[in-house]
Amino acid sequence: MEAVELAPTLRPVLESGEKIVCVQNKVGLYKGSERDEEHDSGTVYLTTHRIVYVDQERARERSVGVDLSQVQRCSLNSGFLYTSSKISLYLHPATTMASSSRRKSSAAGEPRHGRSDSSSSVGEWKCTICGCANKGGAKCTLCGVPRVGNSMIADAPRVEQLQRCGVCTFDNHESMAQCEMCGAELLVTTAEAAATEVPGAESVGAPKGVTIIKLSFRAGGASGFHASLKDTLVGQAWVVGSLVAMADEPVVSDGRRTTSGGGISTILSTAHESERARDETLQSAFADLDALTAKAKEIVGMAEHLATQLHGGKHTPEHAFRQYLLDLGIDSPVTRDTAGAVFHSELARELCDYLEHYVAQCGGSVALVDAYCLYNRAREFSPVFPSDFAQACRKFADLDLPLRLREYPSGLLVLEDAASADDALVLARVDSYIASFGPLTASDLAAIEDCPLALAEERLWLAERHARVCRDEAVEGVRFYENRFHPGQ
Questions:
Q1: Is the N or C terminus of the chain more exposed, i.e. has fewer CB atoms within 10 Å?
Q2: Residue 402 phi/psi, 5° resolution?
Q3: CA 308, 310, 315, 318 torsion: positive or negative?
Q4: What are the helix and strand counts (H, E) for the chain?
Q5: Do the domains spanning 2-158+207-237 and 336-417 agree at the CATH topology level?
Q6: What are the phi and psi torsion angles at 325 (to 5°)?
Q7: Rounded CA gap, 267 and 264, in Å?
Q8: pTM of the model
Q9: What CATH number should be reported for the domain whose range is 423-482?
Q10: Burial grade of 262 (CB within 10 A; 0-12, 13-18, 19 or more)
């Protein structure tokens, strides 16, 4: 496992196309059969691409993750009496050494699962998607999928290892995760058991070594997490993403992709292919509601692209606002199904991620109602209840997040930036406005600070409670003056 990048709210920074599938707190890590003391309690995030562990005590230093492409299979061991349930991850050979190098190459612009040309140009390898036998090269000559891990074809036939079921003693094939006879979860094979004796060790005497990492669920939730993990491994979203990224590149006869080309025929061919792909996406998206929900982001992005073309690329303020909504958490929103017991805490972190910049643009404070409408409009298919939204906002201070929820005496709820939520700063601004513009009304202050009228009234009443201003109630309304009766108070 390798270090991961965290957002200011201590949530993992997601890659392009990556979504959070499940979240579980109070989880510890095991290296083989030994407990990892440095990663003993934290929150585990299951995404479509990775499993990320965020440590509870030292999140910045001890948070690690592993790519799902490195996971060969997983198994669930139910707890008994005082032992907690555990999920075992069986990693592909040498992933511990190769993962960091692949991550560095990905940051340099290479494909996420690709290998360098020098390491992949020698020897035959078998594609994990279509099973085609390739002679060198970094991509499959049949389907174009990048080479993943160590898929070299052995020169000598490999001896199959049998797995004996611990319930019915039936000998199963080594690739089986469950017994073919009774359906029970298969125990670790002899080769894999040798790997668990030493933390991070590989199997001895087998062509492929196996590294085992265990997740210990001390607050429950192992069954649901295991089910989500199996579905995610079957879906292989990381492979689908790489195929989509390569779909726009033309393919030549030798299987290598190139971006070269010219002439009117090339332009027309590209336009026809794009239109055909767009029609297929629309047809599959509107087939049923589930497909429409799954393709929501793709449909919205396509609509925005067409609108930009129709308007000649002109960006109006309304377009900028719509673009801001698209940038919010429509990709991977926090739900009760994914977060479980930590739903409100995870929702609070997500709110800070998406609303912090908006609150700063609005002068450091936004009415809770406005923030709720903006956030729910961005989620679209999974709106949040007002009670859950307010409860999540009340956790800002407990989680030490950069936003705060403030309730004024009139009952007005406001989201404020923690750095500018001090009363002294508000009073100083009101004093400077009165010194510069003279007596103020609530509408005057709302126009100056570009804030709601109700919030401007609360700030003027706050200044009066601190004896900084005096009010004059007249027929045309209430006007606030500098307090000269008690200067300095």
A1: C
A2: -75, 0
A3: negative
A4: 17, 18
A5: no
A6: -65, -40
A7: 5
A8: 0.55
A9: 1.10.10.10
A10: exposed
pLDDT of residue 237: 79
d(Cα 68, Cα 50) in Å, to the nearest integer? Answer: 5
Give the domain ranges of the chain. 2-158+207-237, 247-304, 336-417, 423-482
Long-range contacts of 95-102 (CB under 8 A, 24+ apart): 95/66, 95/70, 95/149, 95/211, 96/1, 96/200, 96/211, 98/149, 99/1, 99/2, 99/66, 99/67, 99/70, 100/2
Return d(Cα 466, Cα 488) in angstroms, integer: 10
Dihedral angle sign, alpha carbons of residues 424, 426, 430, 435: positive
Shortest CA distance to 25 belongs to which of 331, 345, 332? 345
The owner of tokens 């999928």 is: 145
Q: Which amino acid is at 255?
A: G
Q: Which helix (H) or strand (E) holds 434?
A: helix 423-437
pLDDT higher than threshold 50 for residue 219: yes
Residue 330, CA distances (Å) to 20, 298, 376, 403 in order: 12, 11, 10, 21
Q: Report in angstroms the alpha-carbon separations of 48 from 208, 346, 383.
A: 26, 18, 22
In sequence order, what are the residues at sequence separation of 6 or more whose Cβ sits closer than 8 angstroms to the Cβ of residue 15? Answer: 49
pLDDT in tens, 115-133: 334 333 445 777 877 777 7
- The encoded tokens of residue 330 equal 């429509």
Fold of 336-417: Arc Repressor Mutant, subunit A (1.10.10)
pLDDT of residue 230: 87
| Closest among 146, 129, 104 to 137, alpha carbons compared | 146
Distance CA 241, CA 258 (A): 19
Look up tokens 């699962």; give the residue.
113
| CATH no. for 2-158+207-237 | 2.30.29.30
Mean pLDDT of the chain: 74
